[in-house]
Amino acid sequence: MGFRMQPLRWLLIFGVVGLSACASPTTAGEVRPPTPTMPPPLVAVDFPSLPQRTPSPAPSPTPLPPVWSNEFPPDVNPLTGLRVPDPAVLNRRPLAIKISNSPPVVRPQSGVDLADLVFEHYAEGGVTRFTAVFLGQDAEPVGSVRSARLIDLEIPAMFQAILAYSGASPGVNARIRNSDFLERALSPDLGVGAPIFWRIPREGVALEHTLFTSTRRLWQEATRRGINTRPDLRGMVFSAQPPPGGRPASALIIPYRAEPVTWRYDPGSGRWLRWTAGQPHRDALTGRQLSAANVVVVYAHHQTTDILEDRLGNYSIEIQIWGSGPAQVFRDGQMFEGQWQRLRREDMLRFVDAQGQPIPLKPGNTWFQMAPLDMRIQIP
Q1: Please, are residues 173 and 153 in contact by the beta-carbon 8 Å criterion?
Q2: Half-sphere exposure at residue 121, Cβ-oriented, CA atoms within 13 angstroms
Q3: For the segment 204-226, what is each residue's pLDDT rounded down to a tens digit?
Q4: For the chain, which domains are there?
Q5: What was the pLDDT predicted at 25?
Q6: Dihedral sign, Cα of residue 169, residue 259, residue 360, residue 91
Q7: CA 58 → CA 10, 47, 55, 179, distances in Å?
Q8: 269-289 b/e with 16+ CB inside 10 Å = b?
Q9: Whole-model pTM over 0.90
Q10: Distance separating alpha carbons of residues 340 and 203, to the nearest angstrom
Q11: In what order do the strands lie in the sheet with 198-199?
Q12: For a Cys staple, 323 with which of 13, 153, 232, 370, CB 3.0–4.6 Å?
């Protein structure tokens, strides 16, 4: 791309200017990352992974519209916009659990269907991995649990979450150990084992794909450590009615290299249903096909680093979700083009249109599909 963002410097983020100039013409059925007229350029910090480094002060950004600061009623889940039967569940801290999606033998995964939010991202070698965020519902077992990646330095900051993972490469582990959420990291690498993490062996499945956990056990351990407290979770915006300006969309295909993902809108339920590698993607715990009220394609710069991830010579990818970039929000059988913004490390991803107004999500769960800036999704 036109420039590479470095992880420990302040940068002036200019949105996506120049993408259309360097991209090849869009063929029929493909959708290039949107380049709408955006709000004025934003000044943002590239968040430090090492908390002892203090960046210089940034110019104050233009105040965000008041809607970002809305208080949720005490019985409304701030990650889904839905009322919960027992408001007490919202007094706990979100869990961000790392879950495998490759090779195909790990599917169907367990518990993903009950997550409030799921981030799907490239790991390395063209395969994807999930970080599932839980708050409103419990799931047991959850997994298979796999190792963290560099994007998992950002998700715990966004949601003030506990990070549960099987381990990490030495380079990623060093970053986690020097992070501002180390006390909220739970992993066998950090001495957290059974009964919080345990193995469920299966014939023909390699050992690394047999580790599982439980939201209940993770929250119990967090309570024992004194970290299971309710954070101030504000930033997501919901509306039962879609905003104006959407384009009809009944399906979308995300061409991840190893296995493309397809989402198809089901008008009867008002939800998007998921297919992976041409097959309905189901959950082993609930038996249901994975579905979402919202599917959001988040385009961000993918920087290959010098952190070696495996014996095949694959290097870790830093998905730079700070500043701003293009986004496409799919809800109610429509696509809304706009921009994601994240100006501070503690901010969640926020979605705005060309006038800087919020693009609200439909109440319910959301899948965030992380995509490189040059990826072309398809709308059949």
Answers
A1: no
A2: 29
A3: 899 999 999 999 999 999 999 99
A4: 1-380 (3.50.90.10)
A5: 36
A6: negative
A7: 8, 12, 8, 21
A8: eebbbbbbeeeebbbebeeeb
A9: no
A10: 43
A11: 142-143, 211-213, 198-199
A12: 13
